[in-house]
Write a structure and sequence with these properties.
Blueprint: E1 4-7, H1 11-21, E2 27-31, H2 38-41, E3 43-46, H3 56-78, E4 86-88, E5 91-95, H4 98-111, E6 121-124, H5 126-132, E7 141-145, E8 149-152, H6 153-166, E9 170-173, E10 176-180, E11 185-189, E12 192-194, E13 198-201, H7 207-210, E14 216-218, E15 221-231, E16 242-244, E17 250-253, E18 258-262, H8 277-290, E19 298-309, E20 316-319, E21 326-330, H9 336-351, E22 369-371
Parallel strand pairs: 1-2, 1-13, 2-9, 5-16, 13-21
Antiparallel strand pairs: 3-8, 4-8, 5-7, 6-7, 10-11, 11-12, 14-22, 15-18, 15-19, 17-18, 20-21
Helix pairs in contact: 1-6, 1-9, 3-9
Keywords: Flavoprotein, Oxidoreductase
Domain FAD dependent oxidoreductase: 4-350
Cofactor: FAD
Amino acid sequence: MANVIVIGGGIVGLSVAYYLAKENVEVTLVDADHTGQATTAAAGIICPWVSQRRNKKWYQLAKNSASFYPTLIDELKNQGISTTGYKQTGALVIRKEEKTLQKIYEMTQQRLVDAPEIGEVTRLNVAETKQRFPLLDEKYQSIYVSGAARVNGGKLRKSLLEACMNHGVKIITGEASLVKTANHANIKVNDTLIEADQIVLANGSWFSTIVESLGLNGLIRPQKAQIVSLKWKEDDTGDWPVIMPRGTHYIVPFEHGQIAAGTTHEDDVGWDTHVTPIGLQKIFSDLREVAPALLSSALVKVNVGFRPVAPDFLPVFGRLPGYERIYAANGLGSSGLTTGPFIGRELAKMILRKDGILDAKDYPIHSIIKSSE
């Protein structure tokens, strides 16, 4: 196959590049290394089965993505890449209301039929819940989902980058732009024009900027996220389950007392990378409600990233309309760490003209663009 240039070095771009290179495709990956890249800033929870989102297409994508993760991690480990940032620790879905918790429990039990990777689904009382995560407030019952996992976005990105390099992917750091030709485009990066037979746009929140030269208005918008990294006084947190309360808050424990807590969903703030008092107030207010003991932990740092959000809040992938040899994947939003590797592999299969699991028509690229000509 001819050469492919992938623009974007986040989880989607690296996954596409890796799965193309595995098939002996000549791949060049161009990454601007933007401040605020979503993958690097994020801590993720792989547990889509308890989601109450009504969009069935999103759930099918997320379910397949969660099922795919162990395969990817095994591939990386077989290449000697052991520090992937992924670990199956289980999740505690916590609620105060018995009725709400029972509804989630019954829904998850039903989903077990098509998703055995969910593992054990167990109702826990207040004492049992606190035993699993000692820092929780003493008012929560929970559902324990054994198949759930956590992901450190920065570590996963590094592992995929290493895998790409192991398979001969050429890495260029710089801001890429598209130079339109008759029915295709070339890439310009660091004042150098590069010809490509196939192009993949996987540059997340910066998608709308890069397609302007093609006469397209991108509809992807950046959503700012602030996430705090805490250090608990005890080190035995590596096997603790992730915590999934109501709403957008979450707690993700890692090894050696490192705990991530978040997050904010800030729209219409542009590319502001500052840590803000109002953002921290939101996170710590949620933390006080769920695990007040963590307010006495050490604040290590605050990460800021930008989620790429689509108009329909549904990730998309496929060919760019009007361009047979330009592909894109975007709009992953807050499910980026869950769905990114799987979407990357699906897009690689499309480029290779192999059958994927999903129908790209259900995740249409045309929903994130409109012509400006």
